[in-house]
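---------- Forwarded message ----------

FYI, see the BRCA1 C Terminus domain-containing protein record below. Original note from H. follows.
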Amino acid sequence: MGILIVQDNQPCDYLAAPHMVRTVKFLKTLAKGPTILSSDFIDAALDTGEVPDPDEFLLKDKENEKKFGVTIETAVSRARANLGKLLWTVPIYCTANICNGPDSYKAIAEANGAMFKLYRARSGTTIKPTTEEEDGGAPPEPVYLLSSNSAEERSLWPKFEEMARKGHMDPRIVAADWLLDVAMTQQVSFDEKYLARNFFDKGA
């Protein structure tokens, strides 16, 4: 039929989905800037044995566009402009015991160009100590730690904050939702609602 189903990490022209979803596959592929189609496109191709006109199957999802605060068209347009470098040079650490495991967040972060590392508060997972003067007087750059709310993870927060500040960086310990929403909107933004202390204490 002229349709090739590709594996993860391969270039693609289209992404077929039932609706906007914050899954690893959807967010990784969105970073490539494909045209997003309704999964009905696949059904129509299988039913007819022919390739349908993609323009007739563009995904429409007003409910989730409102939920995520971005239209599909805008997210795709930004992704094409970002060229997979939305989070280029942004350091993102992740606790080893985060809910659902770190691998999915690693895949999403790296698909968007981030520097992703596990944080266990051991030697070797450190930010080089740096003073403001050594940074040329520049303001501290943010560094993120993705964390859930277990007691074990919370015990790492003060150590991460100390490490970041010694490296003249601004520590932001956030729920993983921050990364998922950034990847969905294809725009780096920050709101204090994502800070772990706010996010989990309010049961967001």
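H. also flagged this: Strands lie at 14-17, 35-38, 91-95, 115-119, 141-146, 169-174.
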